[in-house]
Specification:
This protein has about 500 residues and is mainly α. The chain is about 80% helix and about 0% strand. The chain folds into two domains: about 425 residues, Up-down Bundle (Growth Hormone, Chain: A); about 55 residues.
């Protein structure tokens, strides 16, 4: 007969282990997400040090997003094939090594190569982290709390990157923006060895879909590349529209191949679920609006308000705090009661309102004028991101946890890349048109300086208006596509599976 003490030990220990697992994947996810923005603030210092041109500096950012966005599905499938724990550890070591390579880079070419390697290992690490979380937390109450934390990290990571990047650049050196990842990776590695379980496999090991991998990786690469070139070469440049057309052809070919492949890279049942498809689209739209705005608000703080990189990072703190609070409230209280059909559109509308508040900012504004918009944007992110991410992975077959999680990251990354490129192009065009329409007949130096400042503000306002449009479109899409009752049904199924999983989970470390 089992003693009460033994029974208590059996009940408490696995739960404790699950929360340590959450901390482990949270550290890894923060490292990957913040690396998309932490280097932005370091770019001027890196450019001065290594001597690359203004035309080349975009590749420090693009190399990361190209590798990350184009290899995410492949990384998620590798996670399913070799095991999530092994993939997680390999991703951590590779990301840390690439970060060291970038931190020690003596030339522009080595720095770009290091950023591409960071993106490649990030494409393995990010979906693996989410897959570990998906398969670890199956009890609805615990799952809500865990995804609240994870959603807050996913939403706030970009702003944390700006904060940390500003501090490291000012207090130390731009190279620390890369080598600091070794600290995160080392902690996550030790915790993962102890707390991340080895996933058991049922049946034969599936084979890798090589044609599908090549088609989707090339298609996503062409998509991100095309939008990245739009900023520098224009939308009518052959390299821009040619890349986008090639992307469309490749991605259509990928979907057609997945219908007949014996071991598909992206099993179509992952996509045909209506709620999951709505969640992927919601994450894509959120990424498009969010990352573009981070860029323009950062420029507004530094170029218009005259903030230092460190002050700029601190300026985002209220948004981060609000995001974390809202994420916990939405996942623990609102999502179980309202479901994503109500919560995600509300978050989108809050995001659109925040963008319109940003439009009011001009050269005479102060930080307090921007604070309401920042707080509202944090509330919007915390409301919609955890709900969308949790719904995207709820009830998915455990065999496809890695690739389903990769779709979440792919949606956010592709959305961010599209949004940043599109908003940059629209803002640059707006600034050029403003100057052309308002140049005085006899321009003076002072008049042209003032005109350039006004044109910059006008370009920001244009970006904010378009970003508000993204969020409004997302509100309509999410309100139409999400099913009202689906969340409760899937949560009930997950609860039954989770109860069985919890009863059978051993106490000893995996």
């Amino acid at each position: 007969m089992t003693s009460p003490q033994t029974a208590t030990h059996h009940e408490v220990r696995p739960t404790t282990r699950r929360w340590w697992t959450l901390g482990t994947v949270g550290i890894a996810q923060l490292m990957v997400v913040l690396d998309a923005t932490i280097v932005n603030i370091a770019l001027p210092a890196a450019q001065t040090d290594l001597g690359f041109s203004d035309g080349d500096r975009q590749w420090i950012i693009t190399a990361y997003s190209l590798a990350f966005g184009s290899l995410l599905l492949f990384g998620g499938r590798i996670s399913d094939l070799i095991g999530r724990k092994i993939a997680f550890l390999v991703g951590l070591v590779g990301f840390a090594a690439a970060s060291v390579m970038g931190g020690l880079a003596g030339t522009f070419e080595i720095l770009v190569a290091a950023r591409a390697l960071q993106g490649a290992f990030g494409a393995l690490l990010a979906p693996t982290a989410l897959a570990v979380l998906t398969t670890t937390f199956t009890i609805p109450k615990e799952r809500s709390r865990a995804f609240g934390v994870f959603g807050a990290i996913a939403g706030a990571g970009g702003a944390v990157g700006l904060l940390l990047g500003g501090y490291l650049t000012e207090q130390f050196d731009w190279r620390w923006n890369l080598t600091v990842n070794v600290f995160f990776a080392a902690i996550a590695f030790v915790l993962a060895v102890v707390f991340v379980p080895h996933a058991s496999r049922e049946g034969a090991r599936p084979k890798l879909d090589v044609p599908g991998t090549l088609l989707v990786s090339a298609g996503l690469f062409a998509l991100v590349f095309g939008f990245s070139r739009a900023e520098s070469d224009g939308w009518d440049a052959p390299i821009t529209w040619g890349s986008l057309v090639a992307s469309g052809v490749l991605l259509i070919a990928f979907v057609l191949w997945q219908r007949v492949a014996s071991h598909p890279l992206l099993p179509l049942p992952v996509l045909v679920d209506r709620n999951r498809a709505a969640a992927f689209l919601s994450v894509l739209v959120t990424g498009a609006g969010m990352f573009g705005v981070f860029l323009f608000v950062t420029y507004y703080f530094q170029k218009t308000l005259g903030y230092s990189p460190e002050q700029t990072g601190v300026g985002f703190l209220p948004m981060i705090v609000m995001l974390v609070i809202a994420a916990q409230l939405s996942t623990n209280v609102l999502l179980p009661r309202l479901g994503p059909k109500v919560l995600v559109p509300i978050g989108m509308l809050l995001g659109a309102t925040a963008m319109l508040l940003f439009v009011r900012l001009d050269a005479q504004s102060i930080y307090l004028d921007a604070l309401p918009a920042l707080l509202l944007l944090g509330l919007a992110m915390g409301t919609m991101m955890p709900a969308a991410i949790q719904t995207a992975t709820l009830g998915v077959d455990r065999r496809y946890a890695g690739v389903s999680s990769a779709m979440v990251n792919t949606s956010q990354q592709v959305g961010g890349s599209i949004g940043t490129a599109l908003l940059n192009t629209l803002a640059a065009t707006a600034a050029t048109d403003y100057i052309a329409a308002n140049t005085p007949a006899t321009p003076t130096a002072d008049a042209m300086t003032a005109l350039a400042s006004d044109a910059l503000i006008h370009s920001y306002q244009t970006a904010y208006v378009w970003s508000a449009g993204f969020f409004l479109a997302g509100a309509v899409i999410s309100a139409v596509l999400f099913r009202r009752k689906h969340y409760a049904v899937a949560a009930l199924i997950a609860a039954r599976e989770g109860a069985a999983s919890a009863d059978s989970e051993p106490v000893v470390a995996h």
